[in-house]
Design a protein that fits this description.
Elements lengths: L1 H25 L14 E2 L9 E2 L5 E4 L2 E6 L7 E5 L7 E9 L4 E10 L8 E9 L9 E4 L3 E4 L3 E5 L5 E6 L11 E8 L2 E6 L2 E8 L10 E6 L5 E12 L19 E2 L22
Amino acid sequence: MKSIRFLIAFAFFFQASYQLSAQEKTVPAASSIKPDADGFVSIFNGKNLDGWSGDSAYWSVEEGVFTGITDGSLKMNRFITWNGSKVRNFDLQVKVKVSAGGNSGLQYRGTMRPDLGPDIVTGYQCDVVSNNPNYNGMLYEEKGRRILSHTGEKVIVDVYGQPWIVGKIPVKDFSADQWHDYRVLVQGNHHQHWIDGHQTADLIDLDEKGRALEGVLAVQVHVGPAMKIQYKDFKIKQLPDSLPLLSAVDAKIPEGSLGVKPQGKVPKDWTPPLFGKSTKE
C-alpha cells in the first residue's frame, strides 16, 4: 500500500513539475524584463542579438549598436525578427541612423514567410529612407497592399482596400548619417508614425480582409546600393489587446477625397480616383 501511495505522489509531483517547466518555456522573453517607469521594455541589450533571429551575414552589433549592412548584392529584402512576443497594440520608440541612399524599415504585425525565402517578413512597415522625404516614415505593406500612405498623408483605407487621402501633414527632410527618433503607435486599426516628434503618417485601416491585427516585429535591410542601418535605445510598451477597432461610422471619408497614388509606374494620363457618390461604400 505504501508503495502505491508513493507512486501516486511521485506521479503528481512529476506532472506538476512538467507543467511548470512547459509554462516557463512558453513565457515571452519580454515578461522577464522589468518595464521602466513609463511601461517600456528594452528589446535590444546593447551587447549581442540575443532574442532576435536573422542572418549574421547582414546583422551584428557594432560598438553597442544594432547594425545591418549590405554590400549592394542583395537579391531580396532581408529581415531580423524579435522573438520576445507578437505585437498587437503598442508604442515603439527607437533611435535610427541610416547611411546616404540607405533603405530600411520597422516591420510590425508581420508574418514570417519562409516559403518566400530565408528571413522574409510581410506586413506593415514604417519606412526608413534617407534620400526621399516622401517615403521616410510612410506606411508601407511589405508584399501586400504596398504603399498605404506616403509621408505627409492622413489616410483611411476603405473596406475594399482602397486608401484615401483625408488630410495632409507637412513633409520634413531628415538628414542621413545622423540619429533620429522614430516612433510607431498602433491602437486597434489606427496607425501613427513620427520622426523626431514630427508626425509622418496617420492611417485608419478599415479593410478587414487585408489588415493584420497582430504579428511579429522585425527590421529590414533593403535591396539596392550598399548601405548601413543602425538602431539603438530600442524599446516597446505593449498596450491592452482590448483597444477598440474604428469602423466606417467612426472614420468617415469625405466626399472628393483623392486616392493614394499606387507604387510603381502609372500611365502618363493617370489621375487619382475621387471618393464620392459613385464610389463603393
